[in-house]
Amino acid sequence: MVTFAILVGFALFAIPAWHVTVRRVGVRACIATTPYVILATIVAAKERPSLADLGRFSEPALLILISLAEGPKHGYAMIKDIERVSGQTLGPGTLYGAITRLEAEEWIEPLPAEDRRRPYRLTSAGAAVLRARLASLGAMMRVGRARLADA
Fold this sequence. Notes:
4 helices; 42% helix; 151 residues; globular; 4-stranded antiparallel beta sheet; 2 domains; disordered N terminus; Arc Repressor Mutant, subunit A; alpha+beta
């Protein structure tokens, strides 16, 4: 859930996200509206980043984060590692699309290029997101196993 802090004069108000539209989390915008509201500063603050925010792109992103948890890798090395670990082969379009989204979230970062290859590494924020997602998957796995045992 996204909440906003609005500073009006010297008073601070918290407003639910559905009252305010801001394109990207972390964007700061200044608005002047009526003589009664001289200046309002809107700051979007996301409570907890999640792979679920990536929607249908969350599975390739999860596989990439798991691959990079072992250490920095370039694209082809990630494809091979993901194939070895999960049995899934990501195409270049899927891989680099997910890399772009993960970079935008600052969950991975590029390292200086080696020859023609550009390696990426997991950031501390990316590691935190990965830990949270793996914990969630572990909880779902326990429930699923328990329900299968009852069936």
